[in-house]
UniProtKB/TrEMBL annotation:
<keyword id="KW-0378">Hydrolase</keyword>
<dbReference type="Pfam" id="PF08386">
    <property type="entry name" value="Abhydrolase_4"/>
</dbReference>
<keyword id="KW-0031">Aminopeptidase</keyword>
<comment type="similarity">
    <text>Belongs to the peptidase S33 family.</text>
</comment>
<dbReference type="Pfam" id="PF00561">
    <property type="entry name" value="Abhydrolase_1"/>
</dbReference>
<dbReference type="InterPro" id="IPR013595">
    <property type="entry name" value="Pept_S33_TAP-like_C"/>
</dbReference>
<dbReference type="InterPro" id="IPR000073">
    <property type="entry name" value="AB_hydrolase_1"/>
</dbReference>
<dbReference type="InterPro" id="IPR051601">
    <property type="entry name" value="Serine_prot/Carboxylest_S33"/>
</dbReference>
<keyword id="KW-0732">Signal</keyword>
<dbReference type="GO" id="GO:0004177">
    <property type="term" value="F:aminopeptidase activity"/>
</dbReference>
<dbReference type="InterPro" id="IPR029058">
    <property type="entry name" value="AB_hydrolase_fold"/>
</dbReference>
<feature type="domain" description="Peptidase S33 tripeptidyl aminopeptidase-like C-terminal">
    <location>
        <begin position="430"/>
        <end position="521"/>
    </location>
</feature>
<feature type="domain" description="AB hydrolase-1">
    <location>
        <begin position="117"/>
        <end position="330"/>
    </location>
</feature>
<keyword id="KW-0645">Protease</keyword>
<feature type="signal peptide">
    <location>
        <begin position="1"/>
        <end position="40"/>
    </location>
</feature>
<protein>
    <submittedName>
        <fullName>Tripeptidyl aminopeptidase</fullName>
    </submittedName>
</protein>
Length: 526
């Protein structure tokens, strides 16, 4: 859950620093809706109404779409192949319209000790995962040889059948502004986003949900010829894993959930109450920026750096800042700060510090060409470049759980947060498009009482906060929790560089045996 926004914008892969910037989005080719794809086996009488999907023949092909396809090139170099899986748009009408779900696969080489397929989801919701198998295999080290590692772009995401509402932004998450007039602008903005979705994707919205994504996963399982699948899910992917294991009991083998969402808190207002964790992360970044004052000039102490951030926020609230070709106001700047805090490492800290430096210079009236991180963040938040990402994300969140519909609910919540929290509460408690969405077609999944899974979370995670991981651990006595201590990090395994976390996960993937007790891992010293 990061990104300019959302539950789940973080891209937990070796490109994690780039992922913390809001531009690495799902851009790949559009696939259209049809009656049935060529890969589907013709319907035949069967007790299983999904037989033609479960028994379809997958046509494996190159993942490379063209000379500029960086994801496809990396997959090609790693030995991956790609395929399109046909799934029904509406599982209540399996003989109706169909979608394609794009997958990639790197086959395991140790066939004598093969475990099976490991399906991946790196969060969002709305994040593409098709490009992740090379990164995950590197994190798995020798264990990777025992698995077919499978990346999936869920329905309506990336190379799968698209859903695009033609938004002027990449996210429905924005700041509420500093007064009632600003909040009313946000009410109108959120209503317009929902209207655009009804106009441009109204035929698809009722079928965008985590439950349908889980159903698609089970079709993928069957089409791959697997009796059970193993699963690695980050951030929102942790919730998807819980839903899948509940809806399809007995069809999971080894389950790793990293950046754990408490299902009791999942929904369109998932970011509420993460303010304390983000303030802690901001202070940690400020300490780093103060130690690097010579490079960024933000202040020589934590207090001075935080004062620079607050002065810049205040300036944007008075008059929009001109940053390159963009205007940054009090709806935008808090989101930029929020977006800068999810990865606890020097590269991400430096990107954020350069962005704050640019914003401060703009507040001083200077001409600014934004740094790469800030430029990509602004492009995502203030143009339609990321519309498909934000549209898919909203369709899932709004399609899973209903949001309060009365704007006054949000206004009262913002007022309760008070002026002491002018940076984060306007982002985490603001109204969004889900307030104007049609009701979900299904009730949320009641997550099963127990699952023997390996849970991973950092104590300072500013998106999927640590109490959520502890709540899931308490509800699942058969699981184990791996805790990375003293890190303000979202997504840990294979991303952060913790030998303790990575070794614990790999031992579980290798043996299928959970640790005897919960595991605490120290923050690496270098």
């Amino acid at each position: 859950m990061t990104g300019t926004t959302s539950p789940g914008r973080s891209r937990p892969r070796h490109r994690a620093a780039r992922a913390a910037a809001a531009a690495a989005l799902a851009l790949a080719g559009a696939l259209s809706l049809g009656t049935a794809s060529a890969s589907a086996v013709p319907a035949r009488p069967a007790a299983d109404p999904l037989a033609r999907y479960h028994h379809q023949h997958l046509h494996w092909k190159s993942c490379l779409l063209g000379p500029d396809d960086a994801t496809g090139r990396e997959l090609e170099q790693a030995g991956a192949q790609c395929a399109d899986v046909t799934v029904p748009l509406d599982y209540d009408r399996p003989d109706g319209r169909t979608l394609t779900v794009a997958i990639s696969r790197i086959r395991g080489t140790d066939t004598a000790h093969r475990v099976g397929a490991l399906l991946l989801n790196s969060g969002g919701p709305g994040g593409p995962t098709l490009g992740d198998p090379p990164f995950v295999r590197r994190a798995m080290r020798q264990v990777a040889a025992r698995y077919d590692v499978v990346g999936v772009d869920p329905r309506f995401v990336g190379r799968s059948t698209p859903l695009d509402c033609h938004w002027p932004t990449g996210s429905m998450i924005r700041g509420a502004g500093t007064d009632r007039a600003g909040f009313e602008r946000e009410v109108r903005f959120a209503a317009d986003l929902a209207r655009r979705c009804r106009t441009h994707a109204g035929d698809l919205l009722p079928y965008s949900s985590t439950r349908n994504t889980a159903r698609d996963m089970d079709v993928i399982r069957a089409a791959l010829g697997e009796r059970r699948i193993s699963y690695l899910g980050y951030s929102y992917g942790s919730y998807l894993g819980q839903v899948y294991a509940t809806m399809f009991p007995g069809r999971t083998d080894r389950v790793v959930l990293d950046g754990v969402i408490d299902p009791a808190r999942y929904g369109p207002r998932l970011l509420r109450d993460v303010e304390d964790a983000n303030r802690h992360a901001l202070r940690g970044w400020a300490d780093w920026a103060a130690a690097h004052h010579a490079a960024y000039g933000l202040g020589r102490t934590r207090a001075a750096v935080l004062a620079t951030v607050e002065a810049t926020r205040s300036a944007a609230a008075r008059t929009p800042l001109r940053v390159g070709g963009y205007r940054v106001d009090d709806h935008d700047l808090p989101v930029i700060v929020f977006n800068g805090l999810s990865q606890d490492n020097a590269t991400a800290y430096g990107d954020f510090a350069a962005g704050v430096r640019d914003l401060r210079r703009a507040a001083e009236g200077r001409t600014v060409t934004p740094s790469p991180w800030l430029a990509s963040t602004l492009e995502f938040a203030l143009t339609g470049h990321g519309s498909a990402y934000g549209s898919a994300q909203a369709s899932i969140l709004c399609g899973d759980v209903p949001a309060p519909r009365d704007p006054e609910t949000y206004w009262r919540d913002l007022r309760r947060a008070g002026t002491a929290n002018r940076l984060f509460a306007p982002v985490t408690r603001n109204i969004n498009a889900c307030a104007f969405w049609d009701p979900p077609r299904e009730r949320p999944t009641s997550i099963r009482a127990d699952l023997p899974a390996l849970l991973v979370n950092a104590t300072g995670d500013p998106r999927t906060t640590y109490p959520g991981a502890r709540a899931v651990r308490q509800n699942w006595p058969g699981s184990r929790l791996v805790t990375l201590r003293d890190a303000d990090q979202h997504a840990v395994y294979g991303v952060y560089g913790s030998p303790c976390v990575d070794a614990t996960v790999n031992a579980y993937l290798a043996t299928g045996r959970l640790p005897a007790t919960d595991v605490g891992c120290p923050r690496p010293t270098s």
